[in-house]
Amino acid sequence: MSPFVKSVALSSKRIFAACVRHYSSLTSELIDNMDKKATWDRFYAESSSRSPTFKNFEWFFGFSSVRDFIMPHLQTKRQPEALLQVLDLGCGTSALGACIYKHSPLPVCVSCADISPVAVRLMQEHVQTAAIQPHNLASQLRFVELDCTQLHEHCGSGSVDLIVDKGTTDALLRSKEGKGKANLVLKQCLRALHSSGALLQFSDEDPDARLLWLETEAREAGVMAANVAVQEVGELRGVCYYCYQVTPCPIVKK
């Protein structure tokens, strides 16, 4: 077994273990179908039925653990009057996107996107009920039903300043048809990013595996591999997590 396959398998087992702890009736479906809308519709429907009050479900960790990796990317606007465009890819019912909206001093438009309309509805209802307020009054927060493999239909080329992926790529890589989908999503993310933007992937996958994959796919997408980097987020419950950053830089053809 290659280091890439072995690392993905370990990461998937950890994601699966989290699902087992919270939603035991979905375990057999989740393990092989983490790229399917129906799987996540059931996942979030069950989560909402288990409690009379809404509770955010966080893959890996919450905003406080990764705040210092995200906020530096929201310090400068490329256009004085424009909102910084932020995409939380595969948001589920995480509070990550809402926290960016709440804490960004510069005006941002945070789009929280998920394949599951159930998750989108739950988050829309929660935000309205909780009356979440932004740090900057010009900021916007929205929740969008979106299959991340169809990102090109929703985001124009160079239109996004920051894309945050917390566990979404990990889920795709685990599913039966996931590697091809993960490749496609990465390429579409790089296309959607502004030249000064960044893609942040949070994962427990080993750098030896993830960096090679990112560099290879970035190169195929016409982005220089030198713009792929990794930082250690820290250890949580005995598992080490990483922040993988990819920044676009088109290759100049001679």
TrEMBL record:
Keywords, in A-Z order: Methyltransferase, Mitochondrion, S-adenosyl-L-methionine, Transferase, Transit peptide
Cited SUPFAM superfamilies: S-adenosyl-L-methionine-dependent methyltransferases
Localization per record: Mitochondrion
The keyword Zinc-finger belongs to this UniProt entry's keyword annotation: no
Xref: InterPro entries: Lys/N-term_MeTrsfase_sf, Methyltranfer_dom, SAM-dependent_MTases_sf
Catalysed conversion reaction: N(6),N(6)-dimethyl-L-lysyl-[citrate synthase] + S-adenosyl-L-methionine = N(6),N(6),N(6)-trimethyl-L-lysyl-[citrate synthase] + S-adenosyl-L-homocysteine + H(+); N(6)-methyl-L-lysyl-[citrate synthase] + S-adenosyl-L-methionine = N(6),N(6)-dimethyl-L-lysyl-[citrate synthase] + S-adenosyl-L-homocysteine + H(+); L-lysyl-[citrate synthase] + S-adenosyl-L-methionine = N(6)-methyl-L-lysyl-[citrate synthase] + S-adenosyl-L-homocysteine + H(+)
A molecular function GO annotation: methyltransferase activity
Function noted in UniProt: Protein-lysine methyltransferase that selectively trimethylates citrate synthase (CS) in mitochondria. Seems to conduct trimethylation in a highly distributive manner rather than in a processive manner, and thus introduces a single methyl group per binding event.
Similarity comment: Belongs to the methyltransferase superfamily.
Protein name: Citrate synthase-lysine N-methyltransferase CSKMT, mitochondrial
